[in-house]
């Protein structure tokens, strides 16, 4: 999404609020954009920044062609500072460096902006330092904070921001977009369950790593149904070597979550809701004989708990080993 008209199609209320502010020249000194992954937080944050610096705006729309727009898109504009987690959190030192930068006048104008990605990962000390920025707003400084977890933002920061709530995208609308881009229906259904980001979904569909990841999760379910004694060997010989980075491990757990959920849907006769398996897959019946409905509910909770542990930087091998033991029961 590179224009406000594109944002309006997927986030009509949020775009209307911000667009009205821009039209009236009343851009807030601080925004908190909160919404699930893929709802357009980053695109909206960049549009707000481009609205401040674009050299050739047409009404409220940035041109997306001038040097300022291009540098903002690539996170290289000298007066638009981009902060994201260093490891699992945004640290006090990162905010201190930002404060030093803001002690000087803008390099190309007196206007400055900063965008904080995953603002919910701010440490306590980092949050307190950001709070000082927000308590003493400059007319020429704009803060844009992005989060998928608004509950984790401390109330004193929230109270000093204009909170913009982004709604989850309509999955049926998103699936249709994917199909229009040439994706087959089965793949579109799976991708819409994993992401709301069009470019990301298309990239995953064409990625050999993702295809192998899905295949490995199917094999894992097969091992649970036929050779559960080989699970420990399988995770060390196949899963861990393939899912190396934390984001890859989280994606693998997302796929496992969908697979287990489909088995539960098969139990209760809700085949239309399936996204990972096709309703006539023989593996579903075999897996349903191994996993009771009660056990599946517990397993789904165990996978969600494992995802939380990964976000807390718990050692991935330990997380996977513990999860497999829980699923084995």
Automatic annotation (TrEMBL):
Record bears the keyword Nucleotidyltransferase: yes
Pfam families documented for this protein: DNA_pol3_delta2, DNApol3-delta_C
Domain DNA polymerase III delta subunit C-terminal, chain residue ranges per copy: 238-328
A Gene Ontology biological process term: DNA-templated DNA replication
The organism's place on the tree of life at top rank: Bacteria
Keyword match Nucleotide-binding: no
InterPro entries in the record: DNA_pol_HolB, DNA_pol_III_delta_C, DNA_Rep/Repair_Clamp_Loader, P-loop_NTPase
PANTHER family on file: DNA POLYMERASE III SUBUNIT DELTA, REPLICATION FACTOR C / DNA POLYMERASE III GAMMA-TAU SUBUNIT
Protein name as it appears in the record: DNA polymerase III subunit delta'
């Amino acid at each position: 999404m590179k224009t406000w008209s594109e944002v309006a199609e997927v986030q009509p209320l949020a775009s209307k609020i911000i667009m009205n502010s821009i039209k009236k020249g009343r851009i807030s000194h601080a925004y908190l954009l909160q919404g699930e992954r893929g709802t357009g937080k980053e695109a909206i944050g960049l549009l707000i920044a481009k609205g401040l610096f674009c050299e050739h705006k047409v009404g409220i729309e940035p041109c997306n062609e001038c040097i300022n727009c291009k540098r903002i898109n690539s996170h290289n504009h000298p007066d638009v500072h981009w902060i994201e987690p260093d490891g699992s959190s945004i640290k006090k030192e990162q905010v201190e460096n930002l404060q030093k930068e803001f002690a000087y006048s803008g390099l190309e104008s007196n206007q400055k902006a900063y965008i904080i990605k995953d603002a919910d990962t701010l440490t306590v000390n980092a949050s307190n330092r950001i709070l000082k920025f927000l308590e003493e707003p400059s007319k020429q400084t704009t803060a844009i904070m992005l989060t998928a977890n608004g509950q984790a933002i401390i109330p004193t920061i929230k109270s000093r921001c204009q909170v913009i709530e982004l709604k989850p995208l309509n999955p049926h609308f998103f699936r249709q977009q994917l199909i229009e881009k040439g994706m087959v229906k089965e793949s579109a259904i799976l991708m819409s369950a994993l992401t709301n980001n069009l470019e990301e979904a298309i990239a995953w569909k064409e990625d050999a790593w993702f295809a192998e990841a899905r295949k490995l999760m199917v094999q894992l379910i097969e091992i649970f149904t036929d050779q559960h004694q080989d699970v420990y060997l399988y995770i060390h010989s196949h899963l861990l070597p393939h899912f190396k980075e934390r984001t890859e491990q989280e994606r693998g757990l997302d796929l496992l979550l969908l697979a287990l959920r489909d088995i539960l849907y098969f139990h209760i006769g809700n085949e239309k809701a399936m996204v990972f398996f096709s309703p006539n897959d023989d593996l579903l019946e075999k897996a349903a004989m191994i996993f009771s409905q009660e056990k599946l509910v517990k397993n789904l909770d165990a996978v969600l708990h494992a995802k939380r542990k990964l976000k807390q930087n718990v050692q991935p091998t330990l997380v996977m080993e513990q999860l497999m033991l829980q699923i084995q029961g």
